[in-house]
Amino acid sequence: MQFKIDRKIFATWPDQQIRQLINQALKELKLPAVDFIVEHPVDENHGDYSSNIALQLFSKLSKFKNPRELAKKITDYCLQITDYDFVDKIEIAGPGFLNFHLKREWLLKQLNQALKQADQYGRNQSLKAKKVMVEFTDPNPFKEFHIGHLYSNAVGESLARLFEAIGAQVKRANYQGDVGMHVAKSIWGMKKKLKILAGKSLTERVKFMGQAYAAGATAYQEDQSAKKEIEALNKQIYEQDPAIQELYQTGRQWSLDYFETIYKRLGTKFDEYFFESEAGEYGLKIVQEYLKKGVFAKSKGAVIFEGEKRGLHTRVFINSLGLPTYEAKDLGLAVAKYQRFKYDYSFNVTGNEINAYFQVVLAALKQINPELWQKTRHVGHGMVRLPEGKMSSRTGKVLTGEWLIDEAKAKIKKTYPDVSEKTAEMVAIGAIKYALLKAGLGRDVIFSFKESISLQGNSGPYLQYTYARCRSVLQKTKITDYRLPITDYSANSEELAILRWFYRYPETVLAAAQELAPNQIANYLYELAQRFNTFYNNHRIVGSDFRLTLTAAIAQILENGLYLLGIKAPEKM
RNA sequence: GCGCCUGUAGCUUAAUGGAUAAAGUAACGGUCUUCGGAACCGUAGAUGGGGGUUCGAUUCCCUCCAGGCGCACCA
Questions:
Q1: pLDDT tens across A42-93, in order?
Q2: Contact A285, A324 (CB under 8 A)
Q3: What is the ipTM for the molecules in this complex?
Q4: Residue A261 CA distance to nucleotide B59 C1' (Å)
Q5: Any residues with CB less than 8 A from the CB of A286 and at least 6 apart, and which?
Q6: How far is the CA of A443 from the C1' of B8 (A)?
Q7: Is A420 helix (H, G, I), strand (E, B) or coil?
Q8: Which positions of strand B lie within 7 Å of protein CB atoms?
Q9: What's the pTM?
Q10: Of all nucleotides in the shown strands, which has a C1' nearest the CA of A231?
């Protein structure tokens, strides 16, 4: 599935106009059309936008001595056109790049845009009227909420906010495994020592269930009689046997209540909850129906999808006991989701360990409902690993999300004893989310405690600090409307460095949403904050209308951008 | 064994096939009679190996090496 983005919104953006200008020049000069790029050069001495048109064209033509000669011809033509109000100058550089420098007036205009649009700045309507469902976090009741869930939550929430930022109507979904062997294992463990729980907090009760799960999982592997007991429990759970209903319902509710406390701290609010018990029913029916139509096959008493015929794995959808497996449940889930929300796009955010699994499910979905298949996309992110290796809830070697947040918070309070409780929480969440989101989604996240709660350098707190610093300076004045009366201003180099960076925010938002890459927002904001702090160190802001305006605009972008990462910007810290 | 993913500075990460590979962190050295030092500036340090395509490769292709994940009734 590919996002269909309407780029009309950026038709007047400089890169689009430069592209038009070059195409016009090619036509006029009777040069052949050829693929070329217009991009921001890495080195800003090379201008604000740069094109490789001359290099691309040169390799196709023989009548020019070198690319620079060709570049000169195109440039000369472009310079005759006067109705482009944003280009200051065009230079030919290096092997034959065309470098475009933007006019200061245009840059200053963008500053005003940011202040005028305030919290709407950077948002657009590319996905207007599109419905998008994003499924993420997916913790399992009766087990811990570990830092992997924290990661999935940070990624999913950020993607949801990015989709909203480009105009989509988004529903956040959470899919939770309330039936299955892990529940049986946990309940088996709970039955052994239930009495301990009287008067304990929710956190402790959930922690206890985690331990119960570990005990059950170990016993399942090592003890034959325990294994039989657990399998019997699994059946009881599936059949809703009254004998264990109270324990089951109590434990389930503890988990769900507990998860809500974590979501609240993280700033996520789910619109839709789905459970495996529900998805299983749908899944079973679907698979049975399409078994008749030949999509699935019977083998060794089970119902399978023959993925091997398509270069995938063959997987079981209904096991030989007649119960739906995870595969069937995921098919049921797709349908259940669509019944509740007629989505145009459906994203499923999980760890990439199930990438191959998901390909099989999607291949089956394609046979059953091509329309839904078209709309569905699995987003596999890297896994969180400990330096010692993989986390395992079976051995109890897990770090819970709550532990991490509390540790981060404790460190902040220790380093800065004066911060308020509220701010410490905000900064702790900011540090963790930023650490998780600043890297691309592809690779595994090697969990480093030190890194994840870092307060210096490229960190969430650095951005929050910069925001608070901006706000603090602005509060020294009584000005409330920072609109700029100035249309020309001879900016110094630090000011210019900021001007030449911040107008890129709207295009960064679009790119991040389109490429499913929250890290692009993180990178952008970090660069912005760095430029501001360098400027701040060398110039006094209070007393200059221009600098105050600049500061206000930066604060606005920091706030907007942090929001897209799911991070709050504190007024003080 | 087969398939997928990942290898960039000691560590964590940037870089739509473009120009001198960019930061943070750790190390060392600096900045402040100033609006918030959770800041700023400087020094030193890298594309796993080998081929290929290209005017140009961290990026695409092949191969080797290293690591991770997956491969039938768990989720």
A1: 999 999 999 999 999 988 777 788 889 899 999 999 988 877 778 889 999 9
A2: no
A3: 0.95
A4: 43
A5: A328, A331, A332, A335, A368
A6: 14
A7: coil
A8: 3-7, 11-16, 18-20, 22-26, 31, 34-41, 54-56, 68-75
A9: 0.95
A10: B74
Tokens at A95, concatenated: 């092997």
Q: How far is the CA of A91 from the C1' of B50 (A)?
A: 40
Quickly tell me which residue has 């390909």 as its tokens. A359
Alpha-carbon dihedral angle through residues A220, A224, A226, A229, given to the nearest 10 degrees: 110
Measure, in angstroms, how far nucleotide B63 C1' is from residue A383 CA.
29
Percent helix, strand, coil in chain A, to 5, is: 55, 10, 30
Please give the protein residue whose CA is closest to the C1' of the nucleotide B34: A540
Over residues A9-40, the pLDDT tens digits come to: 788 899 999 999 999 999 999 998 888 999 99
Q: Rounded CA gap, A39 and A99, in Å?
A: 10
Domains recognised in chain A with CATH numbers = 7-102 (3.30.1360.70), 421-564 (1.10.730.10)
For residue A476, give the nucleotide whose C1' atom is nearest its CA. B35
Task: Look at residue A273 and give its three-state secondary structure.
Answer: strand
Which segments of A415-511 are extended strands (E)? Answer: 445-446
Give the Cα separation of A111 and A553 in Å (integer).
Answer: 6
